[in-house]
Amino acid sequence: MSGIKKVLNLIVVVGLLSSFVACKGDPAVKKQKYLESGNRYLEKKQFKEAAIQYQNAIQIDPKFAEAHYKLSQAFMGVGNFQGAFTELKKTVDAKPDDLRAQIDLGNLYIAGRNWFEAEQVANQILAKDPNNAGAHALLGNVNAGQKTLAEAKAETAKAIELDPKSGTYQFQMATLQLSAGDKAGAEASFKKAVELDPKQTIARMSLGDLYYQSGRNQEAETAFKQAIEADPKNIFTYVTLSRYYVATKQPEKAVALLTESKKTMGDYQEGYRLLGEYYLASGDTDRALAEFEALSKQYPKDLVSKKTYIELLLAKNRTDEAKKLIDEILKSNKNDTDATVLKARIMIQAGKPADAIPLLEAAIKQQSDNAGAHLQLGKAFEATGDAGRAETEFREAARLNPNSVEAQQIVANIGIQKGDLDTLRNASEQMVRLAPGSVDSYIYRGVAKANQNDPAGAEADFRKAMDVNPQSPAPYTKLAMLRQHQKKYPEAEKLFEQALEKDPNWPEAMGGLLNVYIDEKQPMSKVISRLNTQIARVPQNDSFQLLLAQAQLRAHDTKSAQATLEKVLAINPNNSLAMMTLASVQISSGQVNQAVDSYERLIKANPRSTFPLVMLGTLEESRGNSQRARDLYQQALTIQPDQPLAANNLAYLMMQRGENLDVALSLAQAARRGMPDSPNVADTLGWAFYLKGVYGSARELLEEAAKKDPSNSTLHYHLGLTYDKTAEKDKAEVHLKKALELAPNGPNAAAIRQALAGLHG
């Protein structure tokens, strides 16, 4: 190469480098390039990537109005309306005459039902530009929101007159016509909107919905398909058509459509998951499992698909496979809250709820609005016997995620248990909204209506549940219970029998049928005979065997009842109610050692349950083993610090043994908070105050106790001693004599006689 050419080439290269350096260092050029890059992403609907580029531009120039406006559009694309609102405000602040931003801001006000602010925006624009079509359309939306349809249509018509080529305004007119019942006008306007803007998929989908509602199914399907053709990357078009196929009972077409959509969507996560989510929504968990397994392998970085796959594995009890995947996620990110919650869920299922609690509490500390963490923490507390904290967590889970059917059902059950009908009704309404194809949704709402004196509404819901699943025994059982409450016993009996035909193992129906017999005052022999007939059909049903034992006890056949209870436990060694009933039978029969064994077995089967600990403690106390009783009460309080019965019994035992009176008083006060209506608890706290010398408080509590349980000798004894201390000798004598009359040979008899003698000594 000649020297001249080398110099020329060098000049060219240096010139290019100088140009590049100048471009790279010029903020105005840089921000423009970020804007243009963001616009390219926005055009492809890659909203997150677009937002990053616009934010880069704004970082260079915080008052870059166009970047703020485009960022608002990117935020709206991902559903971040608060972010969009903020960016629109910044756009208007930086460029007050940007009417696009003002109109978008007005529409966000409308979305938030802030009609006044939206109207103010529209009027401000029209004051500057009376022929601004967007402002007239905005006023039309304000009027529509305030239910003044005539004014809404007039403003929208003005917008169309000013901009007759806008498909958006035609679509707005169509929705107004539809609201007014003008289906023909709406159809024409939807068609005009599509003609003016062929890519406006919402108009095509609305037109399809109008056809479907009018029974024009073929035209509806065509409109939905055209929406997909107009915007093949829009997942809502596929969802709409698949829902149409489901509604018209063409599930095979829905599957084919969503299978094809996976190819069209490519790597778009929300798109390629549609088929798996369809299987989930339709209750086909086997296909959903296979689909999400395939997705988690094809897209290993897609944690949403992987976590859904884990959820499905857990539902199928494939715990080892689920645990392996969870460990993989946590190895990559130890702070992944969802994976932590799934790990805790496995612990709860494995019978280790106490170990799950700190994990879940840490997860909530890291992400307080994680509804799944609150739900699992509620289950962990429930499994450890802490019902109060469990309820708090369940309610919080339902509040954070009102679309969780599981959380709503748990809250509905809380409403039933506590007699909180408002909670039950609200939760069941949510269930019907979320799962209209579920029997349980209508059952819960029907129960709520039945308890709110709406028998017609309850029956309608129970019959709707029958329509949803004619083979389910549950709605027949609930309707039978309603008939029983109405004292329509023959109808109730028939419905209970229908439920048992559908499911011979259905315990609620069997128990309900027996209750009808009892309400009709049928002989216990008929109850036992009917039970034996059903047990012959399903001999391994421990619930029916337990019902038989209870019927035998009502018939005073203790020996047969005990034999039946042993049979129950042979079928199901973990039947806690059978264990408790057997222990009760053994105590009443004088088989105290055997009863102790039954309670020990119950404790072993339910190590986190406080009730058997307290019952065994009471039994040990009655046979003079006070230290063993004390240990059992303390064990119950370790599991559940506010267990009122354990606190009451331990407080009284400590006072009998002359132990720390302040601790006993504190325990008695805790018991009183938990069981405020119990005369025994009032007596324990009153006696603690007596021993502390606080006689006024003691008298008030002991008077309450004696009034509620006038046949209890100990209560009268304690009250008599208290009246003696308050210098009310006559009252003291009355109650001490009453105590002696009730139990002349009781354990306190000698002390009562001594106290009576002391009154007049």
At a glance:
This protein is mainly α. The chain has 45 helices and no strands.
Output the keywords.
0% strand, mainly alpha, Serine Threonine Protein Phosphatase 5, Tetratricopeptide repeat, 80% helix, elongated, 761 residues
What does this structure look like?
The chain has 761 residues and is mostly helical. Helix content is 80%, strand content 0%. Helix 25 (405-418) packs antiparallel against helix 26 (421-434), helix 31 (507-519) runs antiparallel to helix 32 and helix 34 packs antiparallel against helix 35 (576-588). The longest helix is centred in the first third of the chain and has 23 residues, at 3-25. The radius of gyration is 37 Å and the shape is elongated.
Q: Assembly state here?
A: single chain
The tally of strands reads 0
Backbone CA Rg: 37 Å
Largest sheet: none
**What's the mean pLDDT score?**
90
Count of helical stretches: 45
Task: Name the helicity range.
Answer: over 70%
**In CATH terms, what is the architecture of the domain at 678-761?**
Alpha Horseshoe
CATH C-level class of the domain at 678-761: Mainly Alpha
Name of the CATH superfamily of the domain at 678-761: Tetratricopeptide repeat domain
Taken from the alpha-carbon principal axes, the silhouette is elongated
Describe the protein's topology:
Layout: H1 3-25, H2 27-43, H3 47-60, H4 65-77, H5 81-94, H6 99-111, H7 115-128, H8 133-145, H9 149-162, H10 167-179, H11 183-196, H12 201-213, H13 217-230, H14 235-247, H15 251-265, H16 269-272, H17 274-281, H18 285-298, H19 303-315, H20 319-332, H21 337-349, H22 353-366, H23 371-383, H24 387-400, H25 405-418, H26 421-434, H27 439-451, H28 455-468, H29 474-485, H30 489-502, H31 507-519, H32 524-537, H33 542-554, H34 558-571, H35 576-588, H36 592-605, H37 611-622, H38 626-639, H39 644-656, H40 661-674, H41 679-692, H42 695-708, H43 713-725, H44 729-742, H45 749-759
